[in-house]
Specification:
Length: 160
């Protein structure tokens, strides 16, 4: 019994200090690192909010968000900067990590600004992906075509 109480005191001290370090009060911004293999879009930049598409549903990230690791699905990431501007980026896939210290790392396989997308090209890409699915003869080819369709549908939706 004494061993249990000692262990509980040690654990409760760890949780108390972790809570105190977390610092929920007076946090108005978070630090964002947003990159793809080809470019860095934000490098430890202070932002107010981030909206991300994930396979568990789209969600918003605010300062002092609970630590989270999520997989990004194809769609639009919206970054709300400190000056009030909202910038939108299309991501094909990736991950988002939200840390206890209000830092966020968003790593995308591909990321482009939404205003640089072309609706006609996105529709053509979707049509090609659908044709690939129809002509696919192996399970691997079908899976690759299905992924292309998912990304292309998200591209078309982002353009509209």
């Amino acid at each position: 019994m004494a061993l249990t109480r000692s262990a509980m005191r040690l654990l409760s001290n760890r949780f108390t200090s972790a809570y105190q370090v977390r610092g929920y009060a007076d946090v108005n911004t978070m630090s964002l690192t947003f990159a793809s293999p080809y470019q860095v879009l934000y490098n430890n930049a202070g932002v107010k909010q981030i909206d991300v598409p994930s396979f568990s549903g789209s969600f918003g990230i605010l300062p002092a968000h609970v630590p989270t690791l999520a997989v990004l699905k194809p769609g639009v990431v919206t970054v709300y900067e400190q000056d009030g501007n909202a910038k939108k980026f299309f991501v094909s896939s990736g991950t988002v990590t939200i840390n206890e210290d209000s830092t966020v790392q968003l790593l995308a396989e591909e990321a482009v600004t939404v205003d640089s997308l072309d609706l006609a090209a996105a529709k053509e890409l979707l049509s090609q992906a659908q044709s690939q699915l129809v002509s696919a003869s192996t399970e691997v080819a079908k899976a690759e075509a299905q992924i292309s369709i998912e990304v292309s549908e998200a591209l078309v939706k982002a353009c509209e």
